[in-house]
Amino acid sequence: MARRSTPDLGGSFALGSRRVHRVGYGAMQLAGDGFSGPPRDRDEAVRVLRAAVGGGVDHIDTAQFYGSGAVNAVIRAALHPYPQDLAIVSKVAVGHHTRAEEIDRAVEANLRALDVGGVAAVNLRMPDPSAPPDRGFDAQLASLGKARDQGLIGGVGLSNVSRQHLVRALEQTEIVCVQNLFNLADQRSLDVLEECAKRDIAFVPYCPLGWPLATRQRILESPVLAELGTRLAATPTQVALAWLLDLAPNVLLIPGTRTREHLTENLRAGDVVLDDAARVELRRCFPTGRPARPAGITGIR
After folding, report:
1. Alpha carbon of 287 to those of 95, 193, 239, 284: distances in Å?
2. Is 66 among the catalytic positions?
């Protein structure tokens, strides 16, 4: 698919052996209502995906369980054969007792649905980040490591994990990305972001505009974001996404949408530049309870 003139998309950062634009696309919202079943408007879903790639997106996040397979099916319909520079990242959700062969089957199901021989990375999504990692976690991680060694996936990632999970995983294998809930109103994974920044691992915040709905409204209806948006010639959505990009150079965004209008808005967030006054205002409105620049960590604002 031909690329057209694109926004900056926030620069780039390494995703394993690849280098991708820092503003990507998350496909979860293409599923039907309640994130189950096929898209409510399949033709528009196809147009959104093609507009994303045509607009320079080279990092798409998905999972076979999105829409019970419907999302991967529409990605295939819209984009196959895929551009050589497109990094597709998927995930496998595990329970506390998920066996290795179940993970193998989940990886294979993603590859079949997308009609690819391999994907850029697969994230091991844990059910509860507060539960300490154990031997079951080690075995599940080893399963993805085997898939990587077989050439089915380019790298192993983690999702919904604590810093303890990340450190334990790094004792056993290379981790190319971590995908955790993180946004202006929910910064509980700040220590994971710090650890990733220290080790040059991509940190991918999911629900970057907030979740559940009340949290999202708190962010996007904040008068502070409205005022900053006016001053910076940006929408509240773009300010919230720009704040994430501004935190550290290893942050990769995957905002999702079902419409091309919102897609354009999200992609332009990479063009928004926050100044010191904006950072101070956002910290005041959405405090972390921690220093703005953690001691010993460079690159995090």
Report:
1. 33, 16, 16, 6
2. yes
